[in-house]
Amino acid sequence: MKYERFEDLPVWKAAIELAHKIYIMTKDGFFSQAGDLKSQIRRAALSISNNIAEGFERGTTDELIYFLYIARGSAGETRSMLSFTERFPDAENLKSQISDLKKMGESCSRQIRTWADSLQNTDIQGQRHLTERSRFTYEAKKRREAFELKLKDMTRQARPQDYPEED
């Protein structure tokens, strides 16, 4: 599926939901003590979706990959601060929330990693580099590859004796 807007990306939606829930959790009295934990965890959580959005809007695959890894780093930073928070007896009432938020952060991290890995193995340079000709060439190549696979499968079905089973 091709996404036209970052707001439609499942990973962006998951990241924005994580940031929203972090903001709600940090309204708890535990986060009213002196220090920057409240601000830092909010910024890190929001940074996940912001970097996905920025990378998506940049228009090149290389920049998108770059920002996806920043987003992934922010997901790790968020999980780290959640782990730090859950160690305090004063945050006992937040344990369940923290556990759920850490799982959400891990999910975001996995989604980002999977997406980045798939982008690293593509020959598309990004929207900014697409011209009508390059788009046509890319689509023609993909159609040819799909046709060749289908032809190979049809040949295997028609002449199975020529394709012994592989162990």
What does this structure look like?
There is one protein chain. By secondary structure, the protein is an all-alpha fold. It folds into two domains: 6-123, de novo design (two linked rop proteins) (Up-down Bundle), CATH 1.20.1440.60; 132-160. Helix content is 69%, strand content 0%. It contains five helices and no strands. The chain has helices at residues 10-25, 37-58, 61-85, 95-120, 132-158. The radius of gyration is 22 Å and the shape is elongated.
Helix amount, in percent? 55-70%
Query: How many DSSP E strands?
Result: 0
CATH class of the largest domain: Mainly Alpha
Please state the overall shape, judged from the principal axes of the Cα atoms.
Answer: elongated
Compute the CA-based radius of gyration: 22 Å
Q: Overall pLDDT, averaged?
A: 88
Helix run count: 5
Uncertain residue segments: none
What is the CATH architecture term of the largest domain? Answer: Up-down Bundle
Q: By helix and strand content, what is the structural category? A: mainly alpha
Largest sheet: none
Beta fraction of the residues? under 5%
Tell me the series of helices and strands, N- to C-terminal. HHHHH
What would you give as the CATH superfamily of the largest domain?
23S rRNA-intervening sequence
Kindly give the count of domains: 2
Distance between the termini: 34 Å
Output the CATH topology of the largest domain. Answer: de novo design (two linked rop proteins)
